[in-house]
Specification:
Blueprint: H1 2-35, E1 39-42, H2 48-59, E2 63-68, H3 71-84, E3 95-98, H4 107-118, E4 123-126, H5 141-169, E5 172-177, H6 190-210, E6 215-222, H7 241-250, H8 255-268, E7 272-275, H9 278-289, H10 291-307
Parallel strand pairs: 1-2, 1-4, 2-3, 4-5, 5-6, 6-7
GO biological process, one term: intracellular calcium ion homeostasis
Family: Belongs to the short-chain dehydrogenases/reductases (SDR) family.
Keywords: NAD, NADP, Oxidoreductase, Signal
Length: 312
Amino acid sequence: MGVTAVLMLPLLLLGISGLLFIYQEVSRLWSKSVVQNKVVVITDAISGLGKECARVFHTGGARLVLCGKNWERLQSLYDALISVADPSKQTFTPKLVLLDLSDISCVQDVAKEVLDCYGCVDILINNASVKVKGPAHKISLELDKKIMDANYFGPIILTKALLPDMISRRTGQIVLVNNIQGKLGIPFRTAYAASKHAALGFFDCLRAEVEEYDVVVSTVSPTFIRSYHVDPGQGNWEASIWKFFFRKLTYGTHPVDVAEEVMRTVRRKKQEVFLANPIPKAAVYIRTLFPELFFAVVACGVKEKLSVPEEG
């Protein structure tokens, strides 16, 4: 009996591994079939995440409309997508549109150009984001407004311009790539956190408004999206609780991982995704259930930071 159990264990593990592999392959193929021939608009497609989203959806056979504020970088992305396209699979040549979401005066006109590309939009991925860091009293009101234009007003103007088409066709999905700071505020990022709170609030409300038209609104909130080759640095980060907390909070996810999660969100029509390791997730719950504890930890971190003289 014991010998039989020992012999069966490797076979059982092998069987489970095989089933997981089959599930992953089926999910991957299903994801691609979901976006096949769909018109997908990606804002800030020239960012790290934007490029990875473009790659994933282009491979899946989507008809891409790539938006960005630099034509040369858009063209480079276009060339990269075309060069790696598999000729044995159906893919569509991406269309390029110049769009700077921080210039809200032109967003309405650009939205018409986006609609003219294919006559409709099936999936809108609001990805663009501008960050700023510094003490609140040293951030000018002009910069506050610029952050709000890029992270809040720009995306909602574009969404409002494309939404009537989705409502009239009773189909569509809007994906907001937001941030953990739409859930909680981190010191020295007042303008950025405010814009992310505002965007999350808008799209949470919009979700309920458009549900009757079969339009899906999804929010994907990672921690910080790190660059391709940046890894957490070594050091004595665990010297205090708050340093350990902020280390886990600020080292975010890789663009490839976020792009794959965006694809899964579209496939499963998820309403909300929080993409983070356990420490940031715990911070959100602590902020909700034990706000005084959360504020105390954050305030302690600020005091310790201010007590250390900066170089230069």
